[in-house]
Amino acid sequence: MIQRILIKENLGFKHSELHIKPGLVVFTGLSGAGKSILFKAVLSAFALSESEAKFVEIELDDKLDLESFGIESEEENIFKVLKEKNTKYFINNQSISKKSLQIVSKNFIKYLGSKENNEFSNEKFLMLLDALELQKNANFNEFKSEFEKNFKEFSENYEELRRILEEEKRVEELKELANSQIEKISSINPKIGEYEELLNLKKKLSKKDKLEQAWGKAEVIFELEGAVINALNLSEVDSSFFSECLNELRVIAQSQKLDELEFDVEKMLDRIENLSYLIKRYESIEKALEVLEQKKKELAHYENLSFEKKNLEKKVQDLEQSLKQKAKILSQTRKKNLQILQNLLNDYLKNLYMKDAKLQLEENEKISILGKDELKLSIENTHLKNLSSGELNRLRLAFIATECKILNSGKGIIFLDEIDANLSGKEAMSIAKILSELSNFYQIFAISHLPQLSSKAHNHFLVEKTQEQSIVRRLETKERIKELARMVSGELVSDEALEFAKTLLKD
Questions:
Q1: What DSSP string runs through 56-124?
Q2: What is the pTM of this model?
Q3: Helix H segments across 352-456?
Q4: Which H, E and C letters describe 326-366, residue by residue?
Q5: Cα–Cα–Cα angle for 92, 94, 96, nearest 5°?
Q6: pLDDT tens string 408-418
Q7: What mean pLDDT is reported for the chain?
């Protein structure tokens, strides 16, 4: 629920701050006062409309799922839009892209001024039919959960079978490729650490002459070993440290004598080249050995492909048959509740002075997690796209009301852009009554030109335009009576209009 709205530098509005109570929020005022400008500014904070406002801040007390967008949700979430050279959006002082903000907003906001028809999705209609069945049959939820579980299992196995069939088409090519890699790595037969050892040996060979000359001079120290030990003993110094040092030196000197090693230089260079090839292709000898094991497993898999395919085909066939039987039961159950749903929807449409809707359940060839059903909606054979914007918005309103009645729940915010425009008094009152009912579930924002809807408001704001600027302010009872009377009779408020306004508020 929106608790507070702050708008700055919005064309004629310099500074507007509104504190909102739960329920129906209505903006009224003379034409051209700035109601739509104000409305768009509020929507702009949710990236659902464009606005000239330089700054808008909206405070909500709803718990929102923001973690997937890298934003931590708070007990009170603050939405901001800042318009300078570019328009920037923020939630809880953290920047968010316009596209991401729209995704967040559409999870809890229904904007009936937009052209979207997402209320009439097949999934929502089927969900309502299933909810009607659940009211009569407590075991239905278990049946539906089992169907969805079976469908997921079927989908996973079907996808695995499809992958195997794709593999089968080029299995010989894949086997040849796997064999080629296995043979290449196996023929080289690399050992971990071998490449580094050979490089070290190659380095020694490249400076063989220098090494031999250097160690030839250094070996003089061994001839003086006895003289040094004798001098240390005469000095009464323990000579063991010197002996140990020379022993280590002898080991190092011996390891540098390349003539004593038996190896073929050409073979060594060939070995280094082969190992280098593996490292370039697989990044390291360790990874080359991992690939070797992986390709061996793949080859075994290709050899067993026919066996796997046969088993999967049988499993997919059995799962599909079971799903079709359950989908048939699901369809039969939904058809029993179709008339109930249609009647509930038409009750609201009748109150909105609209023609009856017709709901038709058709069967798809392809099965989905929803079953095989597709619900089609028409208004006396008129497709939704051929309805006027006013008719479409009233239909959407009727559907939301039907949804709330069946589920006895609803949560979020509804924005209505002049939903009672060009309607008669009785039509406007019908909308007002439905919105009053919906306000038990949703917070509703609306612009109204008629007293019927305005009289039902829990928050009534008047938008006025003076010579200097536009302002918006909350109306209390006496001011509301005057404003409702103005909406009835115009600038010159009559006594009859005042009495009618009092009656509306009393009702």
A1: EEEEE------GGGT----SSEEEEEEESSSEEEEETTEEE-HHHHHHHHTTTEEETTSS--GGG-HHH
A2: 0.67
A3: 389-407, 425-438, 451-455
A4: HHHHHHHHHHHHHHHHHHHHHHHHHHCCCCCEEEEEEEEEE
A5: 110
A6: 988 899 998 77
A7: 88
| Dist CA 400 CA 119 (whole Å) | 8
Alpha carbons 154 and 210: distance in angstroms, whole number: 73
Predicted local distance difference test score (pLDDT) of residue 209: 66
Contact 69, 96 (CB under 8 A): yes
Residue with tokens 């002049």: 418
Tracing tokens 């073979």 back to the chain, one arrives at 267
d(CA 484, CA 497) in angstroms, rounded, equals 8
- Give the helix/strand (H/E) hosting 5: strand 2-10
Is the Cα dihedral 490, 491, 495, 501 positive or negative? positive
Tokens at 229, concatenated? 């030990």
What's 224's DSSP letter? T
Better-scored residue on pLDDT, 338 or 432: 338
Q: Find, among 163, 161, 190, the residue nearest to 174 by Cα.
A: 163
Helix then strand then coil, % of the chain, to nearest 5: 60, 15, 25
At 140, list the tokens.
């239905």
Which amino acid does the sequence have at 394? R
Instruction: Kindly list the strands in the beta sheet with 77-83, ordered across the sheet, starting from the edge strand earlier in the chain.
Output: 13-19, 2-10, 55-60, 77-83, 87-91, 94-96
Can you give the pLDDT at residue 55? 96
Q: Which residues, at least 6 apart from 291, have a Cβ–Cβ distance to it below 8 Å?
A: 181, 185, 282
